[in-house]
């Protein structure tokens, strides 16, 4: 048994898709209350790593622990384990046939078996947290992308998770809507939520993250505080990635 | 082909004028249209001249006979047609859903079973299925379809409809974006919970237009109940029309019954088209 003090612990994680090895041995921990941003070029395996943390992808080898529970154990109750881990997707993935309120209550009712009044109260509290209490009766299609993403955050928070995973939560948004979502996430970080965030928003990573992890080619290349990884990167791969991201007009192909 | 623009182009200076089609495309189109109209008029005149209208009216639109179909046309025949086809539709939908879920199952034998059922029953004529039901008691002595004649008719239509319904629903289930299942699972829902509350409701919405068309086709196939030897209070529209037509030695009831079918099928067809259009816009 692993000590319970890690929020997430990943040991020698490998993931293959057919013959393609996407994760080539990842070792990595997140402490409770930490905000860890994962950066790296497209195709480097960031999403796959995140999806292995709540087992949306089944790892090929290695172990994943969340709050000391081994999710990769064959006899684990994966549905129960996932309740403790919220996930926010790039494409929001709200349920289009339900109102905002139903989106935020459905899993509380069906999974946590909370009553109607209790789940609605918790839903409204969380919609309030993301600044959308007045949209409770709208349908997702009636909301802007930024509003949809904030509903998705409220939906995950309503399950009272101890860890939140974000997979490029602002990448599908129009530039002027990115700020609203990042503000919500920043607030969440300040409230002490443990967060693992895949993002291309370097300013967010620098300001909010306790640690930044740079991935490339299925391995972690650099892992440390943002001042170090973004401010003074050690590896050439990190440097060239940051040059491309921070100054896109000066790409050295 | 000669150049399309020759008709409008002035012939070039000097050299001989380019070879010109005998008619310009516009002219050709006019001639073709005129020919079509002439054919239509000739056909219409022929029909008017050669059809014996008096005898046709006597045979197909005799008011006295038409009156005889009421009220049973609606109180028995249409009612039974609706019972058979709605019953068949409901069961076909449920069985189709089970087959569609089996088809997408991770258990391989389920996929095979479902595929076998779909291939077999989609490939058989509906009439053959009704004849099989008719001879079922011979094959399985002592076996009786619950619900008597209604049960047999509904069973036939269920078998006819379920294979198509399975394919439609499978397509609907697959049309729901993958992220929906992932979002549901990430909230701690089990696979079946997510299917029931998230995926199936969306799939059903997607397949409403095609299933409306399938209902229309089941409604028409309900005429095959005729071959089960239904009579009296169990007759549906076609059998009803056929019986009355023999009684009066007159085809009017057939026409009346035909109009009654259209009263249901045409509005449903329009409904399906409208739902389809709305969905195309909404998504
Ligand atoms: N389900 C899958 N089947 C096959 N290959 C996959 C699958 N999911 C991801 N991959 C491959 O794995 C590699 C890593 O993908 P991943 O989505 O983890 O990258 P990423 O770092 O998140 O990239 P991006 O920044 O573009 O989102 C890619 O080459 C991708 O094509
Ligand atoms: Mg990704």
Automatic annotation (TrEMBL), chain A:
CDD domains, alphabetized: ABC_HisP_GlnQ
Membrane as UniProt keyword: yes
EC number: 7.4.2.1
Membrane protein topology class: Peripheral membrane protein
PROSITE patterns named in the record: ABC_TRANSPORTER_1 (PS00211), ABC_TRANSPORTER_2 (PS50893)
Primary location group: membrane
Keyword set includes ATP-binding: yes
Superkingdom of source: Bacteria
Gene3D superfamilies: P-loop containing nucleotide triphosphate hydrolases
Protein name listed in UniProt: ABC-type polar-amino-acid transporter
Gene that this sequence comes from: glnQ
